[in-house]
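From: lab user (bench 3)
To: helpdesk
Subject: output format question, protein + S-adenosyl-L-homocysteine

Hello, I'm new to running complex predictions and I'm not sure whether the block I got back is the full result or only part of it. Here's what I submitted:
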Amino acid sequence: MQDDKSSRKRKRKSKIGSSADPSCNDASIICDKRKKVVKKVELPASSTVVATNSLKQSKSNAFLDKMRAKLSGGHFRMINERLYTCTGDEALSYFKEDPSLFNVYHTGYQEQMFHWPEQPVNIIIKWLKSRKTSLVVADFGCGDAILAKNVKNKVFSIDLVAKDPSVIACDMSNTPLDSSSIDVSVFCLSLMGTNFPNYIQEAYRVLKPSGWLLIAEVKSRFDPNNGGADPDRFVNAVSQLGFTLISKDFSNKMFILLYFKRKEEKQSSKGKQIEWPELKPCLYKRR
Ligand code: SAH
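Helpdesk reply: Thanks, we reran it on our side. This is the complete output you should expect:
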């Protein structure tokens, strides 16, 4: 029985490409699903070699591209984890040592964002467009400065590395912005460092009285059933710093949005005394 099968296999093989039939090595042979020769076009031997080589080349290029994508995806996840588990100061030194890591990070970040049905930065852009263009904005952790590029307002774009000359490169817990000079402070997926309360405190310092604080953050970081922070505790801590919650939007699957206004009166307690909930890192899955 076994012998019968293998001899049938051998016979089939010799029909479609064995060395016994050299014409079957011709790359121009088109076979149907059952590997039966259905059409044959004569080509000079040299073109067969070229076709075979270019097929091999494109296969190996595709393989290399796949490997490169895997490596840079892994590199992105490593940098991302690092940024969520160190302070802003440490993150600044990390990128100062090797600024090219910033591009690796942002290429991976864009790849992740591509899979999100909606980008939080676009909601913030819409929000700003529905208001006066005279509002001065500070975009804390601006990345590619998409916000500044899409609104008419004056925007101070801040990040650890300046990808664009318009970006102020610094740790956002300590910016060169003047106190009480900003109408809208934005944190769009940028509360990454373990000392994130310092960033919000800096936003408070630069905001004018009654200025806006907009926070968009990854939803899973505020899901207490999965190790995330209690959103009410977070709102409470921000309020103690000197803000009033105006509205919140938890309707999106991927992120939450919080809209605060700076209280007119001076803040009552210093950041240190406030009990901030821990915000767990947002670690992206391998795709
Ligand atoms: N807000 C942008 C980019 C979000 S990615 C957008 O929505 O498209 C988060 C950004 O925050 C990264 O570019 C990161 O470098 C920046 N960031 C994180 N910690 C920071 C810090 N301490 N100071 C300045 N920028 C910071």
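A quick orientation on your result: The pocket of S-adenosyl-L-homocysteine is lined by residues 83, 88, 91, 109, 121, 141-143, 146, 158-160, 171-172, 188-190, 192-193 (CB under 6 Å). Let us know if anything else is unclear.
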